Every structure is written in C-alpha cells, then in structure tokens.
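Subject: design request, 143 residues
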C-alpha cells in the first residue's frame, strides 16, 4: 500500500498538466480479495487526478457508443495475468502518456503483490488481440 501511495504522489506531481486518461476496468475476478485489491489500486490512482475509471463485471460483447477509453484493464476470473489493452504501440505515444501507463501498470502489479502479472500488447498476443477487438467495438481510441 505504501508503494501505491508513492506512485500516486509521483503521478500527481508529474501528470497534472496531461489531463485524465480514461480507463475501463473489466473485473471478472471471483474472489472478494481480488476485487478489493483492484478497488484499492483504482482509488489510489483516481486520487491523483490523472485517471478516470469505469468498470464492467464481464468482458463487453456489445458495441460502445460512449466516449472511447484509452486503456482497458481486463482481469479474467482465473488467470495468472492481468491483460493491459491499449489501441497503440507504446513507442507511438507521447512520453508523458507512456509514463502514465507505466505507473498504471505498476499500481496494478503492486496491488496484486505478484499473484498476477500485468501483460500488455507488446508482451503477449492475447492482449494485442483483445485490443483489436475492443477497438473494433468502439471501446478504445483517442489520445
């Protein structure tokens, strides 16, 4: 928890000029412990003002008509991973946005204390395919 607070302090100092990053959290976890870990990470990150969050209890199957998200964090029910989906390669993003994404990933990793590994499109094909699927349904886009 102490590390999450340090991440929050760094974000509030370094990203206040960037604006909010819209994040969708898909929480399919089946245990109260995992849901509370997610909630703790989201609350700490939300307090920085750098992120805004929405959550869904299952993976979206219908098209999205609202404002697209810049990041989708997918926590499947039974997996050693948390899938971190983004519509662009990290190398194509501005430095401040890459820094924000790194802090977001770190916060979720630390919230699970190594019980789940955060993987993104550059590290695994599954989040890459999920990113394409979510973008085609209108859930992701915009910088």
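Subject: RE: design request

Done. Sequence follows.
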């Amino acid at each position: 928890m102490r590390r999450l607070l340090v991440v929050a302090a760094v974000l509030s100092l370094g990203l206040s000029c960037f604006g909010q990053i819209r994040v969708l959290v898909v929480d399919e976890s089946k245990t109260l412990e995992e849901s509370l870990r997610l909630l703790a990470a989201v609350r700490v990150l939300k307090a920085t003002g750098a992120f805004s969050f929405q959550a869904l209890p299952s993976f979206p199957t219908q098209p999205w008509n609202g404002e697209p998200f810049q990041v989708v964090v997918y926590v499947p029910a039974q997996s050693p991973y948390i899938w971190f989906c983004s519509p662009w390669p990290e190398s194509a993003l501005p430095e401040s946005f890459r820094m924000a994404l790194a802090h977001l990933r770190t916060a979720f990793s630390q919230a699970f204390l190594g019980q789940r590994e955060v993987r993104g499109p550059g590290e695994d094909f599954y989040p890459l395919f999920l990113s394409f699927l979510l973008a085609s349904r209108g859930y992701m886009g915009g910088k």
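Residues 95-111 form the longest helix (17 residues).
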